[in-house]
Write a structure and sequence with these properties.
By secondary structure, the protein is α+β, with helices and mostly antiparallel strands. The protein has helices at residues 5-15, 91-103, 127-142, 149-164, 171-178, 218-236, 251-257, 263-287, 291-307, 314-324, 352-367, and strands spanning 21-32, 42-58, 63-68, 73-78, 111-117, 183-188, 193-198, 204-214, 329-335, 340-348, 372-375, 383-385. Bound molecules: alpha-D-galactopyranose (GLA). Alpha-D-galactopyranose is lined by residues 34-35, 37-38, 168-169, 171-172, 336-337.
Length: 387
């Protein structure tokens, strides 16, 4: 799986010539705190050991020539020509990042980019964020400019909002830019600050199971959920005038005023309000190395996403159910936006092999679809590769 840097350099030289610099940005898995980021709340993801690598060198003009090794596709962007967006291809991410960097006063030079990635796509592991952040870092650095990592994350998010049309939160880009090896990040999505929480995976490991399904609903339902949360805030503001986001609503406040909310909105709000609390509690459990408690919160998170937020699906529920039947599994839940993608599982290390085998067999038996299981330690965020 891991990308061979030397091969990438050699390929770069035969395609573009010259000596490229190499930059990487990882995918992520969210341990807990789902659909809380755009509610100004808390999330607890970690960067994974799967990453996107960009080999890059400057050109004398203002063109960005870009080639994807994985897709065997190439494209060109002229920074002095009018912008193009919503092509519906990976080029939107590249162009979006370049244009937004320039709008934020990072003056770019033209560049030749060769991109290779081992982040699984469509798996809910933020291959898009890995692409945005690695390209953003590469373009900035080779142009002899600099950018703060939080600003880089915001550039990636803005690229998705404006060039791709996905109104996502900040979690994926933030952890891809700022992840830390051996740590999960407790991100406060309002303050855009993170606490690095040590996560030793010697005893309990993170295994990610890919449903290998992506339901069409994902994008439209995501936007619907955002709107439902906003409606909830609007109603609750009558009773809690100081609030601007569900982040500001405590579980006690919610219990007090929930009967003023229509049923669907009540369910959505209940998920977000309780998930914020679970996330803070899970970070506390991690600080104490209390994996039993951490796992318990993961199961609860899944139930809330399934029953209240209604962003799970049959395949995700099945993977979580199978995990619950395996020895040594401390917790399991869907991760990412939902409607397909992956589950994240906290599994005793000595049971990992057993777990992988059981999940693969049982999932295939019931769906005729093969799952992929990825095991990853918490990895570092975006950086230049020096070797
Ligand atoms: C997607 C988005 C994130 C976040 C999650 C749900 O991954 O990109 O910003 O909202 O869904 O937690």
């Amino acid at each position: 799986m891991a990308i061979n840097y030397l091969n990438l350099q050699t390929e770069y030289q035969s395609r573009f010539g010259g000596e490229p610099r190499l930059f990487r940005a990882p995918g992520r898995v969210n341990l807990i705190g789902e659909h809380t980021d755009y509610n100004d709340g808390f999330v607890l993801p970690m960067a994974i050991e799967y990453a996107t690598i960009v080999a890059a060198a400057v050109r004398e003009d203002r063109k960005i020539r870009v080639c994807s090794v994985n897709l065997g596709e190439e494209g060109e962007i002229n920074l002095d020509a009018p912008e193009q967006k919503f092509r519906g291809s990976w080029l939107d991410f590249v162009e979006g990042v370049a244009r937004i960097l320039e709008r934020r006063n990072v003056k770019l030079r033209g560049a030749d980019l060769l991109i290779s990635s081992d982040v699984p796509t469509g798996a809910g592991l933020s291959s898009s964020a890995a692409l945005e952040i690695s390209v953003g870092l590469a373009l900035t650095e080779i142009s002899n400019q600099s950018i703060d990592k939080v600003q880089l994350a915001l550039v990636g998010q803005a690229a998705e909002h404006e060039f791709v049309g996905a109104k996502i939160g900040i979690m994926d880009q933030f952890v891809s830019a700022l992840g830390r090896k051996g740590h999960a990040l407790l991100i406060d999505c309002r303050k855009l600050q993170a606490e690095q929480v040590p996560f030793a995976t010697d005893d309990a490991a993170i295994a990610i199971c890919n449903t290998n399904i992506k339901h069409e609903l994902a994008a439209s339902e995501y936007n619907t959920r955002r709107a439902e949360c906003e409606q909830g805030v609007e109603i609750l503001q009558k009773f809690l005038p100081g609030i601007t986001h569900l982040r500001d609503v405590s579980v006690a406040d919610f219990e007090k005023y929930k009967n003023h909310l229509p049923e669907i909105i009540r369910k959505r709000c209940r998920h977000v309000v309780t998930e914020n609390k679970r996330t803070l509690d899970a970070a506390e459990a991690l600080r104490k190395n209390d994996f039993e408690e951490f796992g318990r919160l993961m199961w609860l998170s899944h139930m809330s996403l399934r029953d209240d937020y209604e962003v799970s699906c049959r395949e995700l529920d099945l993977l979580v159910k199978i995990a619950s039947e395996c020895a040594g599994v401390l917790g399991a839940r869907m991760t990412g936006g939902g409607f397909g993608g992956s589950t994240v599982n906290l599994v005793r290390r000595e049971k990992l092999e057993d777990f992988t085998e059981k999940v693969s067999i049982k999932y295939f038996r019931q769906t005729q679809i093969a799952t992929d299981v990825y095991v990853s330690n918490p990895a570092g965020g975006a950086s230049e590769i020096i070797f």
